[in-house]
């Protein structure tokens, strides 16, 4: 199912933080949202998983406006890993993941064998099967993250909305998560701070800056040294990853773009 975001405006207490954003998350693709702190990534994602209502504009799911669906209907299609990582569940890991099955249950209906299989598979997918009986609140940040991701998988959605899913994860679990997302082949809209992870996992990227999409396209076209300087304020070169051939962004950790000895963004360095 594809997502269309058209001329989206979102405000908090009258302050507009997303102003005219447009993007498409194509069916079965991984669409990345990148941008500086406060650029509106989480806010935009919150409208897709219906935590927030737009002040103007539309969010369409396979051509139908989300707000024309009941929350139950949209929950059968869209699952989220929100930024709010709910630390207050007095539940076991398994019970948290089983919450993902709620949109499919009639009131007070119990779990059936199919639900149990889906929950078990989701826990296995995120490498948390052995923690099924542990209390959610006793987990580390990265472990909680993986359990909440399993809850989203258990919802068996057409569309996954993931806000910073690699936050808190060690590098091995970051890699595992990105491999898992690729294998899912679901429509995925994901915000990422790690531009190298975004470059390797996303089919298309949208760059948010001050609440608007300022660049869209395949990672190699979007993540240029000029964009890195203009939008993120850093100096960077883009080279080919020696193992994968993906774009690899090499940041200059010694100087911001406006402190650099030359204002001209670096060209890809020659090798040899
Ligand atoms: N609940 C809220 N109430 C009021 N303002 C908010 C709220 N959440 C976010 N904002 C403001 O909206 C703007 C966009 O925030 P948002 O969290 O969407 O940005 P972001 O791109 O996800 O940032 P980050 O990279 O830091 O996570 C910021 O100025 C932020 O302070």
Automatic annotation (TrEMBL):
Database matches in Gene3D superfamilies: P-loop containing nucleotide triphosphate hydrolases
GO MF, any single term: ATP binding
Domain of life of the source: Bacteria
SUPFAM superfamilies attached to this UniProt entry: P-loop containing nucleoside triphosphate hydrolases
Domain ABC transporter per the UniProt entry, residue ranges: 3-235
Keyword set, alphabetical order: ATP-binding, Nucleotide-binding, Transport
CDD domains according to UniProt: ABC_Iron-Siderophores_B12_Hemin
Protein name: ABC transporter ATP-binding protein
